[in-house]
Amino acid sequence: MTKLAPSLLSANFARLEDEMAMVERGGADWIHIDVMDGHFVPNITIGPPVIRSIRKVSRLPFDVHLMIENADRCLEDFAAAGADIITVHWESCAHIHRTVSKIKELGKMAGISINPATPVDLMKHMLAEVDLVLLMSVNPGFGGQKFIPMVLSKIEYLNTLRENGRYGFEIEVDGGINLDNAGKVLDAGATVLVAGSSVYGADPVEDRVRELKRVMGGGI
Ligand code: DX5
Ligand code: ZN
């Protein structure tokens, strides 16, 4: 079953409880939480204290996407705050095998993300180790950007590696996903779609989640 993970980056930060409830009512599977540090990406968002607070008011799994330098230093904090899935960027981790092992030791699902220009092949030897691979389909840092079409062939290629190796990791795609391109992204092999502005920019938000889920074949 494919999953939809609305990104809180485009939600109203003054009312996160309601914003999460709206997507849950529409049938969202995970809540995608974008953590940015102003170093790895040119934007700063939220950290463990906010995650700890919102963890108390949502039952959905928290899919935490770390776009930060020195992720190793904060893994315990994000795990303790309530992350269920912790994804780190290949480009910001010098010893990613150690980082992934640490996330798993903390009892969380471990993901690796790569930017649009980073080749899938770099991760080849890590594919047996991870629960999730997140392919960025925009350059990370901001919501509301346009989907970069060349990422479609990366999804297809990663899906081929996944099938050939009989791996079980999720293929998550993040950036510029909307009603028009969701079908194509799934056809290429994605199993989890992140959607920020196309969900929270809609009115009502619940209906957009339902529409996206319908396109994904999991309509409720
Ligand atoms: C971008 C973030 C995304 C972002 C997606 O750096 O990782 O999760 O919120 O937003 P949209 O769907 O608007 O591209
Ligand atoms: Zn993200």
Give every kind of bound small molecule, once each: D-xylitol-5-phosphate, zinc ion
Helix content: 25-40%
Q: What profile does the largest beta sheet have?
A: 8 strands, parallel
Kindly report the spatial arrangement of strands forming the biggest sheet: 1-8-7-6-5-4-3-2
Structure notes:
33% of the residues lie in helices and 19% in strands. The protein has helices spanning 16-26, 48-55, 75-81, 96-105, 151-164, 182-188, 197-200, 205-215, and strands spanning 3-6, 31-36, 62-67, 85-89, 109-114, 132-136, 170-174, 192-195. Strands 1-8-7-6-5-4-3-2 form an eight-stranded parallel β-sheet. Helix 1 (16-26) runs parallel beside helix 8 and helix 2 runs parallel beside helix 3. It binds D-xylitol-5-phosphate (DX5) and zinc ion (ZN). The site of D-xylitol-5-phosphate (DX5) has 21 residues, from strand 2, strand 8 and helix 7.
Keyword list:
220 residues; alpha/beta; eight-stranded parallel β-sheet; 8 helices; 8 strands; 33% helix; binds zinc ion
Secondary-structure map:
Elements: E1 3-6, H1 16-26, E2 31-36, H2 48-55, E3 62-67, H3 75-81, E4 85-89, H4 96-105, E5 109-114, E6 132-136, H5 151-164, E7 170-174, H6 182-188, E8 192-195, H7 197-200, H8 205-215
Parallel strand pairs: 1-8, 2-3, 3-4, 4-5, 5-6, 6-7, 7-8
